[in-house]
Amino acid sequence: MRIHCLQQSIPSSCMLNSSAIIRRQQFLIRALGGCCSHQTHHHFRMQSMYGGSGLGVDAVQQRKGLDADACGILRLITPPVDPTRYKGQAGKIAVIGGCREYTGAPYFSAISALKIGADLSHVFCTKDAAPIIKGYSPELIVHPVLEESYSVRDEDKKSISERVLAEVEKWMERFDCLVVGPGLGRDPFLLDCVSNIIKQARHSSIPIVIDADGLFLVTNNLDLVSGYPLAILTPNINEYKRLVQSVLNCEVNDQDAPGQLLSLAKRIGGVTILRKGKSDLVSDGNKVMSVSMYGSPRRCGGQGDILSGSVAVFVSWARQYISSAKEELGMNPTVLGCIAGSALVRKAASLAFENKRRSTLTGDIIECLGRSLEEICPVSCIHRSLLDQ
Q1: pLDDT per residue over 27-61, tens digit each?
Q2: Which of 282, 242, 276 is closest to 262 using CA atoms?
């Protein structure tokens, strides 16, 4: 599982792969003690993130194709399963999406957040979609507040739009991250309402993961996210093509994919972009990273929805970790969240494909999320280290 850091100028905060010395030390600790203390565990995780290679900044900057440990990122930001924590501290996620035609996508995104370890997951959808999404799982909190044009008279649009915003706004500050777009559709009135929700989330400084039809919305109205560092865009190939054409006024350049992505993120004002593909590229306008670990050759629909919910959880966890740190870490939580989400979904897809092969479906991948995270970041080890304190 490797992440390649691709950038023209590499700052000292760039996440590097642990050196051979650190790996040997970690092996000795596992061999001698099974699980290290919380402080030692934290020390080695930080060394893994920041290099621990003994190289000076100048030497590091001269290296190209720098590697970081995706497992280290996941372990770094994943909170312990601590009995002293209360409901909500492990994450409260909301998905804005779901209409008459598309009810599976918001469910996939919201349930993935819970399967990874978030405490609460909400879905704000249309009235037609709500009973169906509720029927998928009692674990989700479903709000049937969105409206489509067919059910709204022209003279009522303003008042209904205000009511929709008020219904979402009263919940807004409870959320650690929003996911906008899964199953949203392209109804003009519905998109107008969601535009207002995005503006309110931005005003409240809440991270927003924008996927699927949410990308259609912001591509046609970049002011919604431009200059907002807590916005995360997760385009697939076609969505990325439209974004590049709209912002850079050119075609996608696969020969210099990292450079073009860097330019795109900068032009939109420092949003974080996770470009999905054979290798997932992540950029916040300052650096570009690549998550290239093997996933699954089976490309069933819905994997992007899993990714959006996963990124939302990891972004909220990364923000918690960074805010609780005793020193300035110089790390972007949206970038960490994208890397962690990409890596975990790829691992889960790989495990699901091992079992189901051609018949692999989105639900099979979702069921592998917990096992994938446990293999990377075992609950038992973290729990034992807490008990030893």
Answers
A1: 434 433 333 333 334 433 433 343 333 333 332 33
A2: 282
